[in-house]
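lol so apparently i was supposed to do this last week
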Amino acid sequence: MEVPKLEDVIEFLPRTNCQKCGMTCAEFAEFLISGDLSPSDCPVLHEPEWAGYIEALEEILAPLKERASTGMVINADLCNGCGICVSVCEYNTANSESGRLGKGPQWEEKVAIRVVDGVLVLADESLCTRTTQAADKCTKCKDHCPTNAIDYL
Amino acid sequence: MSEKILRSIVCPGCSCLCDDIDIRVSGGSVLQINNVCSWGIGRFVGGKKFAQKKERKRPEGHYISDKKERIAVSVDEACAKAAHIIEKSKRIFIYGLCQCGNRAQARIYEMGKRLNATFIPSEGPLLTLFLKQSVQNGFSLCTLEEVRNRADVVVFWGANPIHSCPRLVSRYAIFARGRFTERGEEDRKAFIVDLQPTELTKLCNEVILKDGNDLALLKAIRKLLKGEKPDNYGTVKPRHARKLAEALNEGLYIAFFCGRGPFYGEEGETFLRELIELVKFLNREKNCVLLPLATDFNTVGFYHVILRNADVDFLKNSVMHDVRSWEPRTGDVIIGLGSDFVWFLSDEQKRAMKEKEVRIVSISSYETLTHVNSSVALSCAMAGIEVEDLCFRLDSIPVKLSAIMEPVFPADWEILEKLDALL
Ligand code: SF4
Ligand code: SF4
Ligand code: SF4
Ligand code: SF4
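anyway here it is w/ iron/sulfur cluster bound
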């Protein structure tokens, strides 16, 4: 799964900065990535000469639908299930006895992330410490992933 | 069908043999596997090692082939044909031996020895040299749990564990916490010595050997440790070499994991001797261990069979350490055990095999290129998935493999028993 970049999104906007949406195209693109606005909120894109652009943007933004409320996106194609993120996870380390010793969490153990069927999954999003941190949010799993399979958006 | 969870199952995906795999099964099907990496999942659900989303084909029966056709036969008929081919051959080679359980390894060792066969273990370029050196010089090994509990300096030399044993670093070597390493990675210094940056570079100190001159780096480190000034660092940045030497100097428990990297060149054996000298030198004042980083799930098991039999002559006379040294001749037969050896041959060897009409007897759980092109294809169950067996982890610890699914074919050791009885 490709996580969309700001430049790719701007590319599909009219780039006229007409401000009919109340802002510039670049600012509008940021709101598209944050999920607060959708492509159809740009009135210009509804004009006939921009036909197909709303759909194209929706396609580019589709991976973001899989984003957790913590902002975490896991690229299953890159992840090899090495479990490094599981073993350094701020929540797991404090709460999983087996995890601290390097073992994978047991079946019933409550953990934020774990590896299932060879790839990382968010086991219980509400346990990820990012949900309660206002600033300086935890990025341990992302920082430690050797294949760069984790991102926050 | 009622569901159940099988707990703490061992994964026969690589030599790490992770023992924390939980599997939810229903009837004969696997529904979910927790804690297994993407390599291991391939083993459980039949995917390919480096592309687990691609299905790995299993054979549908046992086969005898001639130039024209491939005929499905019973296991007894296939064994009889294999015995006939082996008996008529002039030289017997046994290749593979690392991706099967210890019972098959012990059985083929006995059989091959009696038949005066030459053994070519698929991980021979690394392990045969290590075993020879351990017999001649000896070196200190330890368990992976000991690495987790005590190692404060870990060096991966010519090895990328993310590719050879994906969970090794999270379970034992870098991130896991232990008795004297309670803060995990913060209590350890990790180094990776390689030709180029790898996935682990972002998590470790790197020492890049642009020209692959491992020996020059080793010698420089020995000098630095003795307080002398090296005159040659090879292509390594002097500050990287100094950082590694400093860590070795300060560390209390050092673990070297050595991969195949340094053994591709001519100087592999000299490098290993020097590395063992370094380990011995460090052991005078601290603990230092050396572990060959085997990849296949039971490479170490075959070497245990040799050690169990205290068979030093066998190692000298009957083991070829690299399949690339084999020169095919008329009258040769290759018995492939759990390995797709055709992949590892040079084009010249493949051509010569055809020309000299070398026959192949393949014993495999998968429909590999070798299995398809063999004169006799004996299909076997998968150890650790369909049949129980014993195998040896990369640190030599014996581990029991369980059976979680019903086998369609007999175990490899049962096939070998039948074959052996005919020879
Ligand atoms: S309305 Fe559309 S074209 Fe105008 S600034 Fe906003 S995004 Fe750009
Ligand atoms: S962000 Fe922190 S707490 Fe959340 S899953 Fe990653 S490591 Fe765990
Ligand atoms: S997300 Fe990264 S660190 Fe986590 S299991 Fe996958 S590859 Fe390993
Ligand atoms: S690291 Fe090896 S043994 Fe562990 S789960 Fe992966 S393939 Fe299986």
